[in-house]
Amino acid sequence: MFTADREVGRDLARVDWAATPLGPPRQWPQSLQTAVSILLSSRFPMWMAWGEELTFFCNAAYRRDTLGRKYPWALGRPANEVWAEIWNDIGPRIQTVLRTGQATWDEGLLLFLERSGYSEETYHTFSYSPLRDDTGTVVGMLCVVSEDTDRVIGERRMATLRDLGSDPSVIRTEQEVLAFADRQLARNRKDLPFTLTYLFDEDTARLAGATGIGTGHPATPATLPATLPAAPATLPSQTPGTPGAPDTPDAPDAPGAPARDTPGAPGTPGSPGAPDTRGALTASRYARCPRRARYARQPQRARRPRRPRYSRRAGHPRCRRCRRCRDGVARRGPGRRRGGAGAAGRGRVRRPARR
After folding, report:
1. Is 314 within 8 Å of 341 (Cβ atoms)?
2. Per residue, what are the HEC states of 52-82?
């Protein structure tokens, strides 16, 4: 029965079932064993409650999506202890199923769960179905649930943005625009408990609108500086020139420290009178290759442009745009020399190819 799911089934096997109203698993009725097997083998989030105390069972998908930190503590415990924070919402629905034998249905129901150590806003679509024993009596219920928290919150926030920009008027005064924005923001108190709207002037920002909080509250100053105060360029413990401080190029030299090289100063590379070390650096770079080292020691001179290769077939320097140069090789047939028709046209004798 517990082998349908290795992970959750292993934890269910460790529960002291003898201390629960259900007793040892070997004494469970066949209807309960079948319900637990179906629950564990399903990949859809499901949980069930069985017996007088509504003993709690769940599968791996429900543990991953909904149960959170309450696993594996919740296995084998009464359902009203597992979901004590929402029992006022789901308890009457479960009692209706046990009393009437009819399933329930809720879509996007708001439930504040404490599955992560704090109260969390969640939305769920679920159905409670009756479970019957071997005699046909309703003794439990099965919950098939799908969490819609991300979808509901995302749609609510997008609706706020849509309504904020859906004003049909074209021309409005500044006060009318601010009043309209406050009305739209005040409609979504779940995502925006309070808002403050400031208008920027030259150097200050003045309060122009507020929702969810009074204007006289300490958290709603009438004016704010438009720019934050500038942070110091260097910390006192990192002043340039002090031991252990990073050297800054733009910082002045510390007293007693050697002067930095200044462009144009004597001894600076590139200044008049400075030794030319370019040849030495170049020679050291090619020290492993005698030929390159010899070339580096020679005075640099402008290179002559390369002479273009002469195309005997076209009768002019070879190029890439000339059709004869581009297609000359393809036109030459087997047994024909490079002279071709162009050379024959210039008075040269065409000799037969040797075989």
Report:
1. no
2. CCCEEEECHHHHHHHHHHHCCCCCCCEHHHH
Closest CA to 311 of 343, 270, 287, 286: 343
What is the value of pTM for the model shown? 0.60
Gyration radius from the chain CA atoms: 44
Q: Give, to the nearest 10 degrees, the angle between helix 174-186 and helix 149-164.
A: 160
Which are the contacts of 130, defined by CB distance < 8 A and separation ≥ 6? 97, 98, 101, 102, 103, 138, 140, 141, 142
H/E stretch holding 143 reads: strand 138-147
- CA-CA-CA-CA torsion for 187, 193, 197, 198, nearest 10 degrees? 180
CA atoms within 13 A of residue 167's CA, in its CB half-sphere = 15
pLDDT in tens, 226-283: 776 666 655 555 545 545 444 444 444 444 444 444 444 444 444 555 555 455 545 4
| Residue whose structure tokens are 């002067």 | 259
> Alpha carbon 292 to chain centroid distance?
52
Each residue's pLDDT tens digit, 209-220: 999 998 888 888
Q: What is the dihedral of CA 105, 107, 108, 111, to 10 degrees?
A: -10
